[in-house]
């Protein structure tokens, strides 16, 4: 049994869906679980529809964009307007409209109830299309399978319950060698939708690979494999042929966009190899993450995270930033489900780098400002360089201002204006 994960770029148009189907058809002799993300940039659009992010009066044009985008793909795949996919999608969009009209409650909860429609819509389209071209498949709602706690926007997976549920998805149990399901979303302990963190479809595929004892897992990307840098920033990237599990975990933690930070550990625990291949050139070898001792080739690795906020927290009284203050700060971060990309503390201040989310930043300020003084800079860039040299740092930074820097023997991180 194999698990394939297709991201948004691989299904962002009718022609892309056809290409994805061609890849699947070449592997349809295997028992195959297909995990699919939202199409294109749908999640970005749906994030703008979360209750409280924008006034209700701004919702109609936003949801119309989401609707029109998907309908353009559907019209290219299903010329018959009476095809069943149209009725199913109409029902999903009606549910979405009801959801975005709700009164705002908790951002993390509201977020997951809205953005999940990206994956529900994409997999509905793809499952219908595969059936229409003779690739019989079973559509499965992953929210019945993967169980998380109630930490909605970064749900913690309950692997015991997920393992108990896995028979509801297994191609062997379903007597169907092709299964289509959603990435990124899951079911919370209280019966609502949860999500696994931005770009979490990789993690979904990893969870299923672990629970199904998959032979292998493959992520299909628009790049030839695991590159040492983002091609948007570096014209001459190097493809990494093999990456040890632990090295991949480190790189994902620092923000390597090719895989979600939590992806590797489940497959490492069962020694399942992860292949990263190009949907544009599916026969090419790509890259593989597995039980290797060294990365090959060994070369500097660059990770860029834009739209970062550097927040400095200082006590208002005569205290120091010691364990009791840190405990308070981390409790608030956990409550708001804010991921810290870099942190540093001194006797009198604690600095942390987070993704720029105005709504969550305001909530963080509200929770901390009575006890602490807060200073912050926005619109920053976090650069991580693994296997760095000083010459590399000087060339990357150039004449820009470094606001904070951390170094280990193998890795340096810099926050830059």
Describe the structure.
With 417 residues, the chain is α/β, with parallel strands linked by helices. It folds into 2 domains: 2-221, Acetylglutamate kinase-like (Carbamate kinase), CATH 3.40.1160; 301-416, VC0802-like (2-Layer Sandwich), CATH 3.30.2130.10. It is built from 13 helices and 19 strands. The chain has helices at residues 14-25, 42-47, 59-77, 84-100, 107-132, 159-165, 171-174, 201-212, 245-254, 264-269, 323-336, 358-368, 390-397, and strands at residues 2-6, 32-36, 138-139, 147-148, 178-182, 185-188, 193-195, 216-221, 226-227, 239-240, 242-244, 273-278, 287-290, 301-315, 340-345, 350-355, 372-386, 402-407, 411-416. Strands 3-5-2-1-8-12-13-11 form an 8-stranded mixed sheet, sandwiched between helices. α3 packs antiparallel against α4 (84-100). The model has no long low-confidence stretch (mean pLDDT 93).
Topology at a glance:
Layout: E1 2-6, H1 14-25, E2 32-36, H2 42-47, H3 59-77, H4 84-100, H5 107-132, E3 138-139, E4 147-148, H6 159-165, H7 171-174, E5 178-182, E6 185-188, E7 193-195, H8 201-212, E8 216-221, E9 226-227, E10 239-240, E11 242-244, H9 245-254, H10 264-269, E12 273-278, E13 287-290, E14 301-315, H11 323-336, E15 340-345, E16 350-355, H12 358-368, E17 372-386, H13 390-397, E18 402-407, E19 411-416
Helix pairs in contact: 1-3, 3-4, 4-5, 11-12
């Amino acid at each position: 049994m194999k698990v394939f994960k297709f991201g948004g770029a691989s299904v962002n148009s009718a022609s892309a869906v056809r290409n994805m189907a061609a890849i699947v058809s070449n592997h349809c002799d295997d028992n195959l679980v297909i995990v699919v993300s939202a199409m294109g940039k749908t999640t970005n659009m749906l994030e703008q529809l979360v209750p409280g992010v924008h006034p209700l009066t701004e919702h109609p044009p936003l949801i119309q964009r989401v609707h029109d985008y998907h309908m353009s793909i559907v019209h290219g795949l299903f010329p018959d307007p009476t095809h069943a996919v149209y009725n199913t999608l109409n029902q999903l969009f009606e549910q979405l409209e009801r959801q975005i009209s709700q009164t705002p409650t908790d951002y993390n909860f509201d977020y997951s109830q809205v953005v999940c429609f990206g994956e529900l819509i994409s997999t509905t389209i793809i499952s219908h299309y595969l059936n229409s071209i003779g690739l019989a498949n079973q559509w499965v709602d992953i929210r019945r399978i993967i169980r998380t706690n109630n930490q909605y926007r970064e749900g913690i997976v309950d692997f015991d319950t997920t393992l108990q549920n896995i028979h509801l998805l297994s191609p062997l149990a379903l007597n169907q060698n092709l299964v289509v399901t959603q990435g990124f979303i899951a079911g919370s302990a209280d019966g609502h939708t949860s999500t696994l963190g931005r770009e979490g479809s990789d993690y979904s595929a990893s969870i299923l690979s672990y629970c199904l004892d998959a032979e292998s897992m493959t992520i299909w990307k628009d790049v030839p494999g695991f590159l040492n840098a983002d091609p948007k920033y570096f014209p001459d990237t190097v493809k990494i042929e093999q990456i040890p599990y632990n090295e991949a975990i480190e790189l994902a933690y620092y923000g390597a966009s090719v895989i979600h930070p939590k992806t590797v550990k489940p497959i490492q625990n069962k020694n399942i190899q992860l292949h990263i291949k190009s949907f544009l050139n599916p026969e090419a070898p790509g890259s593989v993450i597995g039980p290797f001792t060294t990365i090959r080739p060994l070369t500097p690795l660059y990770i860029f995270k834009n739209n970062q906020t550097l927040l400095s927290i200082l006590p208002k009284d005569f205290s120091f930033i010691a364990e009791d203050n840190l405990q308070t700060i981390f409790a608030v971060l956990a409550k708001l489900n804010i991921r810290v990309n870099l942190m540093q503390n001194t006797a009198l201040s604690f600095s942390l780098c987070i993704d720029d989310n105005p709504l969550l930043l305001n909530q963080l300020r509200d929770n901390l400002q009575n006890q602490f003084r807060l200073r912050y800079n926005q619109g920053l860039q976090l650069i991580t360089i693994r296997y760095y040299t000083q010459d590399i740092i000087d060339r990357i930074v150039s004449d820009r201002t470094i606001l904070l820097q951390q170094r280990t023997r193998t890795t340096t991180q810099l926050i830059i204006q």
